[in-house]
Amino acid sequence: MSTAEQERVEPEPEPDTRHPGRVVAIVNPTAGRGLGRKAFVQLRELLPRLCSDAELYLSHEPGFATKLLEGLPLAPGTIVIAAGGDGTVHEIGEVLLGREGVSLGVIAVGSGNDMAHQLAMPSSVPEALRALLAGTALPWDVGRIGDHHFLNSVGFALSAETCWWSHRSTRLRGFGRYFWAVARAWWSYRPVVLELTGTGWSGRRPVAYLELAVGDRAGGGFKVTPRALVDDGLLDLCALEALSRWAILPLAGRARRGAHVEHQAVHYEQLADFGITLDRPTRVHIDGEIVELAAGTHGVSIEPGALQIIVAPSHPRLAARAQRQIADQPGAADQPQSGDDES
């Protein structure tokens, strides 16, 4: 089979346990410093074996997935797989907004892979494909800042600068890449002045770090917003006052495990909508991609359950949902609980 940038994957006649619905997979070949191309080769072999109706596309330029999906009819029940980093997931997820009955699947091929980790997806391509085909699509809130949507998070100041430096690492991968980026951002640290409105920390002030998040993980594994739930209809705001460079340093390690939120200089809130005003064009990251926000006021809000994203069969949300369904059954309150006297 050729390695064309776009190809139709012809299904094999067996086995008969293949996924019956339509699957569209889009691979970013530049993700993970070449891991994307390896993933394309693996998916080209696996998809015909595991899916009855599958299409595989190799993205060859920024915006390829957007153009493809905007012109592709997607019936309810279709799974669209984003094989790449968080930026690839962002691009594909944004196009799927409003596509009723279409689910997003994620295969981690990037460096940070914060979305894939939150979905409990395995790190290997074959295991991840099997997990998402056997998984369950659940509602996922989507954030909005100005004209931009975000599936996971938006970061200002040190958060954005860390992301900016990570994109300039040409050799490192994974946590090593982000550790290097954190060090470079910390060394060149300058606070960003902004104004918050509609929050408990409203006012004009300099900040060292600001993250607005749907999920609980950002920056390649930092638990910056550890209280976040992806389906609670709220955004988590975590802001750090403009401390000195040396006062900030110990907080980086604490943020890795989510232990920074009790620090007196950290402000943490959960909100549905608020505003941010910028004096000048400001560099931010949106789902790991660098964007410049214009000067002025930007509304920030949440769109509850705007996407359906597939979680792995082992995901804790599935167990919690099963427990709620049992509790909601008629007569469940009358059933004896574990350890209760049944006599």
Characteristic terms for this protein:
Rossmann fold; 11-stranded antiparallel beta sheet; disordered C terminus; single chain; alpha+beta; 2 domains; 5-stranded mixed beta sheet; 343 residues; 9 helices; Tumour Suppressor Smad4
Question: What is the secondary structure topology, with strand pairs?
Answer:
Layout (H helix, E strand, L loop, with lengths): L5 E4 L9 E9 L7 H16 E8 L5 H7 L8 E6 L1 H11 L6 E6 L5 H5 L6 H10 L1 E10 L2 E3 L2 E5 H9 L7 H14 L4 E6 L5 E11 L21 E7 L3 H12 L9 E6 L1 E6 L3 E5 L2 E5 L2 E16 L4 H13 L15
Parallel strand pairs: 2-3, 2-4, 4-5
Antiparallel strand pairs: 1-3, 6-7, 6-16, 8-10, 8-14, 9-10, 9-13, 10-11, 11-12, 13-16, 14-15
Helix pairs in contact: 1-5, 2-3, 6-7
Word description of this protein:
By secondary structure, the protein is of the alpha+beta class. It has two domains: 6-134, Rossmann fold, CATH 3.40.50.10330; 148-304, Tumour Suppressor Smad4 (Sandwich). It is 28% helix and 33% strand. It is built from nine helices and 16 strands. Strands 6, 7, 8, 9, 10, 11, 12, 13, 14, 15 and 16 form an eleven-stranded antiparallel beta sheet that branches. A five-stranded mixed beta sheet has the order 1-3-2-4-5. A hairpin with a 2-residue loop joins strand 14 and strand 15. The longest helix has 16 residues, at 35-50. It is globular. The model is unreliable at 338-343 (pLDDT under 50).
